[in-house]
Amino acid sequence: MAMVEVRNLKKHFPVKRTFIDVLLRKPQLYVKAVDGVSFDIEEGEVLGLVGESGSGKTTTGRLILRLIEATEGIVKIAGKDVYTMSKEELRRFRKEIQIIFQDPLAALNPYMKIGEAIMHPLKIHNIGSSDRERKRMVYKMLERVNLTPPDEFYVRYPKELSGGQRQRVVIARALITRPKFVVADEAVAMLDVSIRSQLLKLMLDLKNEFNITMLFITHDLATTKYICDRIAVMYLGKIVEIGTFHHISENPKHPYTQALISAVPEPDPKKKKQKIIPQGEVPNPINPPSGCRFHPRCHKVMDICSKKEPHFVEVEDGHQVSCFLYE
Ligand code: SF4
Questions:
Q1: pLDDT at 263
Q2: Is 300 in the pocket of ligand 1 (CB under 6 A)?
Q3: What is the DSSP letter of 33?
Q4: Rounded-to-integer distance, Cα 185 and Cα 58, Å
Q5: DSSP run (H or E) holding 177
Q6: Residue 305, ligand 1, Cβ within 6 A
Q7: pLDDT (tens digit per residue) in 74-90
């Protein structure tokens, strides 16, 4: 059984109507941020969710954790339907599902000491028999994320730490309740390249140690190689290709994935890559293009592409793509 099952997940945000719109009885418009997304994540697996900004990946992560309500769809985590839970059930279940945010400075209370911030979820979920025991657990976690000596870091405030150290605190706080599933939303995007690889290694080590299942959201395909088992590529609210890291990075099938891969810098100067640049801008998600949503920008567009929506086709061992080139 998959640890996470997502079926036909949708989020359509209503566009704010002006007084004139109401007066003229203009129809209600919706931003189709996520528009029918389905995938599974197996226990202990890391699925990378990749796409440009505005593709709907962050909204997908928040919908899965029910931080925002879905318009439609089913999300099951460890066999439990997140959208049929009562508020109380969901509150209790939150210790099993956590999120690591992109901006640690915004995620941490500037007036709360680091130790208190990490202890907070333990108190909320009633983990540990006393503050003394909880403090011991926080010390252990501070050591585990390499914020040592722990007694020194425990009493510091977020502004007294570097960006990398703050993100270690956010990781510690997310993992202190030993969650089964974690959404890492652009978790290393704001860090310098040198610190980024250290943090990715730490996340991978902790994921293996605590047997965490993870959705790793990123706009940067280059970071997925350190941590992701499989990759799902999102474009304008839909997944267009999904497969193992090896399949996607070595043999991308969808023209959009090919363009993303071609933009990843090649470390070996002898290997020359042809850059594929999608034409024009990302279309407006209020009124997405007909047929294949990528057709106005696709370098392999055909007549049929604007008329019909392609189905998902399995091209090799679990590698699926939604494109008429393979139907
Ligand atoms: Fe390009 Fe057509 Fe494939 Fe869409 S369906 S990605 S437009 S070739």
A1: 86
A2: yes
A3: E
A4: 7
A5: none
A6: yes
A7: 999 999 999 999 999 99
Q: Scan for tokens 């992109």, then name that residue.
A: 102
pTM over 0.85: yes
Q: Best mutation site among 235, 276, 325 for ligand 1, i.e. most ligand atoms within 8 A of its Cβ? A: 325
Position 197, amino acid: S
Contacts of 91 (CB under 8 A, 6+ apart): none
Q: What is the pLDDT of residues 271-317, one digit of tens each?
A: 777 788 888 888 988 999 999 999 999 999 999 999 999 999 999 98
Nearest CA to ligand 1 atom 3: 323
Query: 49-58, 232-241, 266-275 — which is least confidently predicted?
Result: 266-275
Q: Is the separation of the CB atoms in 57 and 234 below 8 Å? A: yes
Pairing verdict, β 319-322 and 312-316: antiparallel
Instruction: State in Å: Cα 258 to ligand 1 middle.
Output: 12
Q: Is 240 in the pocket of ligand 1 (CB under 6 A)?
A: no
Q: From the CB of 325, is ligand 1 less than 6 Å away? A: yes
pLDDT at 60 over 90: yes
Q: Where are the alpha helices (DSSP H) in 125-254?
A: 131-144, 150-154, 163-175, 193-210, 221-227, 245-250
* Residues constituting the chain: 327
Cα of 280 vs centre of ligand 1, distance in Å, is: 15
Does any ligand 1 atom lie closer than 6 A to the CB of residue 238?
no
Question: Atom 7 of ligand 1 has which residue's CA nearest to it?
Answer: 295
Q: Judge if the beta carbon of residue 323 lies within 6 A of ligand 1.
A: yes
Name the residue of 233, 240, 297, 305 whose CB sits within 8 Å of the most ligand 1 atoms, as the mutation to test its pocket: 305
Which residue in 95, 103, 88, 17 sits closest to 58, CA to CA?
A: 103
Check if 294 has its Cβ closer than 6 Å to any atom of ligand 1.
yes
Scored b (16 or more CB within 10 A) or e, 163-197 reads: ebbbbbbbbbbbbbbebbbbbbbbbbebbeeebbe
pLDDT tens digits for range 3-47 = 999 999 999 999 998 999 888 888 899 999 999 999 999 999 999
pLDDT of residue 162: 92
